[in-house]
Amino acid sequence: MARRDFIHRVLAIRSNDPILHHIAPLGLAAGAGHCLVIDLDGSSPKYTRRTLSDLVVDGIKAADLEIGPGVAVLGNGGISFTDAASTIDRLVDVWGRVVLRDGGDPHPFRVLGAEPLLPKPFVPGRADIVQSISHGQQADTRLLLPPLRRHQIRSMLAGTIETRWRWVRAWEAAWSMRWE
Fold first, then answer.
1. 79 close to 50: Cβ distance less than 8 angstroms
2. CA separation (Å) from 76 to 32, 43, 81?
3. Rounded to whole angstroms, how far apart are CA atoms 36 and 11?
4. What's the CA gap between 48 and 74, in Å, rounded?
5. For helices 18-30 and 150-157, what crossing angle results, to 10°?
6. Which of 5, 87, 96, 174 is the 20 to 30 Å CA partner of 119?
7. pLDDT digits over 63-101, tens only?
8. Residue 40, Cα to own-chain centre: how many angstroms?
9. How far is C-alpha 60 from the geometric centre of its chain's CA atoms?
């Protein structure tokens, strides 16, 4: 898929799996090329020191509007979507592509579910995206992510993601799919 084929500007994502809940927003963002991840889940492990709450309280500064290559991440800081909606709108206008790590607060954006593809009877029911846990797994019509290696998971938990990984390239399709 060419990166110009985007139909979405903002996608939210969540998972019941704690590791996938942490790394799926990063993969989805990396699949967009350059993208901002905004954390709306105040109860999950933090991404960064700079937070959405800081931007709402202190105002958006020029440095916050500088778009660099790759993925930028903005932690939550204990603020709800409702309290940060106008700041998020401004960031969407500047960045063009934004991923929200969904924390359950109501918002107007499409929330994708991502779950591990476990064997029967544990197959995820309502997930939009499934993470294969071994080679050779197949999914129905849902977006299937290739298995991750341990070093890739460790790298992402440490804040590093490589766009050349098959796993990241698989996320590109999410931006052009017509989610129902």
1. no
2. 21, 9, 10
3. 11
4. 6
5. 80
6. 174
7. 888 887 889 999 999 999 999 999 999 999 999 999 999
8. 11
9. 22
